[in-house]
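Allow me, if you will, to draw on your knowledge of protein folds for a short while. I have a record of one protein: its chain in single-letter code and its fold written as C-alpha cells. Could you please explain, in whatever detail you think fit, how the C-alpha cells follow from the sequence? The record follows directly beneath this note:
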Amino acid sequence: MLTALSAEAEPAMAIITLTTDFGTRDGYVGAVKGVIARLAPDTTIVDIAHDIPRGDVAHAAWVVSTSCQEFPHGTIHVVVVDPGVGGARHEVIVKVVGHWFVGPDNGAFAYVAERVSDAWAIESAAFRAKRVNRTFHGRDIFAPAAAAIARGVDVTSAGPMVRLTGALPWGTRARGQGRIVHVDHYGNLVTDLPPGEAGDAVTVAGHTLPIVGTYEDVAPGELLAYVGSARTIEIAVRDGRADARLDVPRGTVVLPAAVGEPYR
C-alpha cells in the first residue's frame, strides 16, 4: 500500500509513530515514550493507536498500512502488537519506500512490506537496551531501535539482513477477488478488493450489492458497498453495523458480481 507514496524530502526533525495494543490505563506507552525521549530527545512522537485489540496482529497491520502513507518520507513507525514476545520471531527493522518500520516479524508489516523488502534483525547493542526484559520488547528493543534510527545510526549495523516470514491468516490476495480484512470502529467491513477489480457490484455472504458513492445513496438500514478511504471496497449498513448484520469473520471472500446478477 506504500507504492503511491511520493518521494518527499525527509523531515528535519525525526518523527516516530507508535501503534500498540498496550491501552492507556497502564504505564507501558509512557515507558516506550520515555525511552525515545531519553535517547532521541529532538524526536516528534505521534500516537497512531494504542487500543488495537489485544494480540490482534491483523488489525494492527491494517491500521499501520492505512495511516503510515500520510506521514513524511523518513518517518519511523513502531508497531508493538506482539503475542509471541520473547519467542522465536525476529525483532526487525524494515525499510519500505523511504519509511522505516520497527517491530516483530509476525505479520504486522504484511500490507506494507513485500518479502523482498530490506529488513534487518535487531541484534546490535546500539539498537537495544543494556538489559532486555523478555516480555517488554517494546521498551527494551523497539523503542531503542527507533531512537537509534532517529539519531542517524547506520541501520545496516543493527544486525544481519533477514527475510520476513510473518504472515496474516488469509495470505496473499488473488487477483479478481478480495477478503474482509478489517472491521472498523463503526462496524464497517473493510476488504482488500481494489475498485478497479470490483466492477459495478460485489457479492458477499449471499448478498449482491451495487457499489454506490456514499451512505445516503441507500435507505436507512440497508446494506451498501462503496469505495472506502483506503481505496478498497467496504461493506456497511446505513445507520447501522455491517459486522452485526452479516456476522462473518475476517477472511470472508468478496467477489465481483457476475454480469446481470440481480441485486439483493
The CA atoms of residues 136 and 200 lie 48 Å apart.
